[in-house]
Structure formats: C-alpha cells, structure tokens
Amino acid sequence: MISVPVVLWLTISVVVVLGGVSIAAAFGLGSFGIAYALGIDIETIFSTMVSRINSPALFALPLFIYMGILAEKSGQGERLVNFIELFIGRFKGGLGAVIVLACALFGAISGAGSAAIASIGTVLMPRAEASGYPREYLVSLVACSSILTLLIPPSIPLLILALTMQISVGAAFLTTLVPGLVMAVGYIALNQYFVRNFSVKTVEHTSKTVFIADFRKKARSASLVLLLPVVVLGGIYGGVASPTEAAGMGTIYVIILALFVYRNMTFKEFFDATIASGNLLGSLVIMVSALILLSTVLVYEGTPFILAEMVSSNFEQWQALLLINLILLVIGMIMDDISGSIVAASVLYPIAQDIGVDPLQFAAIVGVNLGLGNITPPVAPLLYMSSAVAGNVPMQKYIGYILKFIFFVNIPVLLLVTFWTDFSLFLPRMLGF
C-alpha cells in the first residue's frame, strides 16, 4: 500500500497548484513533507537530484528554448505563413489549412506550443477573421494546431521525457511524428467541413506571371527558415550531432538569420530576447529541479513500483492503458507539458513497464496525451492563451468547436497510439532505434 504521508502531501501539492501557487513551490513543499514524514535523508536525495540534473544532454533544453524564442521574435514564423499561404490560401478553407501547416512547420523550429500561438496566431488570426472566419472558431483551430509543435520534432517536452526515462532522445522525437502528421490532416479535413458554413472570402487568382514573381519573392524569404529543421533534425538523424549539438547549431543558425541575413532584429531586440530566454530558463530549471526532487523522493519510498504492482495485478493491459491515458489527461490539464513529462516518466513509466508497454510507445502516449490536456477545458493553458491572443473570447463561444476537434481528431489519434504499436513505432524501428 502507498503510505499515508505520500497520499497526504501529494494531495496538498495538487490542491496548492490548483490554488494558483507555482508548480516548483507546490511540489517542492510536497517533496520535503514526504521526506520529513518518512525520515528520508535529505542530503542523499539532493545529491541524487543534482546528479540527474547535471546531465550534458540536458544542455539541449536551454538551446532549444533560446532558438524558439529568437525564431518567434525575429518574425521567422511570418515568413513560413506567407510561403504556405501562396499555395493553399487561395482556396476556400485554405487559410485555416495554412494555420495548421504553419504551426506544424513552426513546431520543427520552436518545439513549444506557446511560441506557435504567439508567432503564428498573432499573424494569421486577424487575417483569417478579416476573411470571414469567426473569431471563436479561430481560437479553437489555433489552439489545436499549436499542440502539433509538441509532436513534430524537436519537442521540448519529449526531450525532457526521454532524459527522465533514460531513452534515446532521437527515437522519442520520432514516435510522435506520424501521430502529429495524422492529427494535422484531421484538423485540415475538419476545417474544410466547418468552412462550408462560413462566409469566407478567398484571394483572387492572379496571372501566371504575377504568381511566379510572388513565388520567387516568398520562396527566397522563407527558404532559409525552412532549412532550419534540416539543420537540426538532419544533424541528429544523420549521426553528425547529438541533440545538444544540433540545438546549438540551430541556435547559431537562427542568430545569423535574424541579425545578419534578414536583419529584422536589432541588437537591442536580440539582447531583450536573450534576457527573456534566460528568465524563462531560470523558472524552468527551478520547476524541473522541484519535480525531479519529488520523483527522487517517490522512488526512494517505492511509490511508483507499488502503483505498478497494484495496476498489473488488478487490470488487464488494455484496462491499464486506458487508466494511464486518463491519468495523463488529468496531468495535462493541471500542468504544463514539461512538468507533465517529468511526472509521467517518474510515476507512470514503471506501470507501463510492468504491463509490457514499449518505452518508445509510452513516450508517444505521453506526448499525445499532454497535448490533448493542454487544450481540454477547464484548465487548458494553450486554449486560454489562444483566446487571449484573439481578444479574450468567452469560453462558451468556442467550447463547441474545441470539443469537436478533440472528439473527431485528438481522441482517435490517441487510441491509435495506445492500441496500435506500429502507429508510433514504425519510424523509430525503420531507422534502427
């Protein structure tokens, strides 16, 4: 049985988080409470926590964050938007498809949903609303599309998950690529269904000469941005660089584009973006440290293994998988994706191992679930951010749209990831992971 102090202090931590206290403070408090109640040596726990944080692979985290913020602040998302819109923005529903594809491509640059909403949403929401898309619909479409950045590699939550689970980062990135692409196709198809009832204006077709001139201009503008995923992912899967080295190369590439090629970022803006990255990284390091401290305490106490034994002895595998999905959904609703990754790896991974789930399949299940949790009311951080960008649209206006996206796209993909092993493991196996 799980000890009473563990249940008590974890409950306190969750309640405190729901009350508005930071995740780092809430779960740090819970960690110390459990350690004190059970008489666990704090010095031993801290030394274990520090050794887990002091990982060379973890250096990729600040680099990916820095790369994403610089790409967002220097307007590289807008260049992608203009290039994609050139091909499909002229068709009815095309602008909605542009939002989906732009977020997917931006995911290959930033790896963070909030960056996609800030970069793609601010550019395309006003443009789409002026074309006849209802604002409340755009809130749902942009929020759903933003979670593609968590699934299209490189993904910051999957990086953290892989490091916590001690599996290959490159392999973990690949597990959510196919689910992410299928989800993107589903969003585009559902967008075409919704657009039938909107009075959407399309861009007038231009002559072939004007189109070619426009294509050359926008292709030249976006081509170097489109090469960024090639630099990062090509370095990782080509065996040229580790994820950390690839993140470093990508960051240098973005800096060169912003300051010396496009010259659309002043040195003051570059400095401000660097400070913003440092501030974000500082808060993330504190949060990650607190959650790793909690996972260390729970492992010392044996909670994950007790839970694994309880689940495996009382449930069939399919029932256990449904239970894991339900818990992950709740985690995604009350935590950000990075926090959820650490908690999932620390608490739920032993259960998945005990019922025979492949570690890479578990990584895919976590990735898809955390994305779903981030857009599922009542918490839904990415959904609320999308609403804020659109001008604080009331939830009752977009709740119908978001639920349709969830039920007709997200949940079917989640079920495929959970119960069809090859759906998420095809690419890693093909590339020899």
Apparent shape:
globular
For the report, how would you describe the main beta sheet?
none
The SS-based structural class is mainly alpha
The tally of structural domains comes to 1
- How many beta strands in the DSSP annotation? 0
In what range is the share of β-strand residues? under 5%
Mean pLDDT: 80
Question: What percentage of residues falls in helices of 4 or more residues?
Answer: over 70%
Low-confidence stretches: none
Gyration radius, in Å: 22 Å
Order of helices and strands: HHHHHHHHHHHHHHHHHHHHHH
Distance between the termini: 37 Å
> DSSP helix count?
22
Please describe the topology of this protein.
Blueprint: H1 4-18, H2 23-38, H3 42-53, H4 60-73, H5 76-88, H6 94-107, H7 113-130, H8 135-146, H9 148-151, H10 156-165, H11 169-175, H12 177-195, H13 208-237, H14 243-261, H15 267-301, H16 303-314, H17 317-334, H18 337-354, H19 359-373, H20 381-389, H21 395-419, H22 421-430
Q: If you had to describe this structure to a student in words, what would you say it looks like?
A:
The protein has one domain (4-430). Helices cover 80% and strands 0% of the residues. It has helices at residues 4-18, 23-38, 42-53, 60-73, 76-88, 94-107, 113-130, 135-146, 148-151, 156-165, 169-175, 177-195, 208-237, 243-261, 267-301, 303-314, 317-334, 337-354, 359-373, 381-389, 395-419, 421-430. The relative contact order is 0.14. The mean pLDDT is 80.
